[in-house]
Amino acid sequence: MPRTTALKPEQVPPESKPTLDAFSKSLGFTPNMLASFAQSPIAFNAWAAFRSSLNKALDMKTREAISLIVSEVNGCNYCLAVHTYAANLAKLPADEIILARKGHSSDPKRDAAVQFARKVIETRGQVNDSDVQAVRDAGYTDANIMEIISMVAMFSLTNFFNNVFDPEKDYPAVPLAGSI
């Protein structure tokens, strides 16, 4: 049961309105998570700027694969539904979505990024030298590795928000990891 309410358009703080309106226009509707998050213009706009910057990093399929493993590890059903939907839009095949949720990819370079993201979230960043070397060996620069780490943090933020506030689901539910 939701622990906060999604704001109606007339309730959105003026400082959040332009950001929320841009998301709504882009998506064609206003997701409940965003209509809830907009209650704090400071947090909402900071997250939106972070997300917008990270949308320039790596390719969309890799970003979505990272979002799926982070959401899986963090147990965020809302984000798993959102990012499964987005992964489909990115033309990530269904078997790749399942692999990403399990921390892998059939693409060797993407696999290294997803495995590294999983290590970062599971170890709270306490990775070892071989973890860093593996992602470098796959062709990622230190700047790319910083982007992967930033994505782990950004996706964790929305995972935590959704796990705490449990907004009403507005994307198709996905099965639990154990059943895929």
TrEMBL record:
Record-linked Gene3D superfamilies: AhpD-like
Pfam families: CMD (PF02627)
PANTHER family cross-referenced by the UniProt entry: CMD DOMAIN-CONTAINING PROTEIN (PTHR35446:SF3), SI:CH211-175M2.5 (PTHR35446)
Phylogenetic classification of the source organism: Bacteria, Pseudomonadati, Pseudomonadota, Betaproteobacteria, Burkholderiales
Record NCBIfam families: ahpD_dom, peroxid_rel
Domain Carboxymuconolactone decarboxylase-like: 43-102
InterPro entries documented for this protein: AhpD-like, AhpD_core, CMD-like, Uncharacterised_peroxidase-rel
This protein's name: Carboxymuconolactone decarboxylase family protein
Species for this entry: Herminiimonas glaciei
Superkingdom: Bacteria
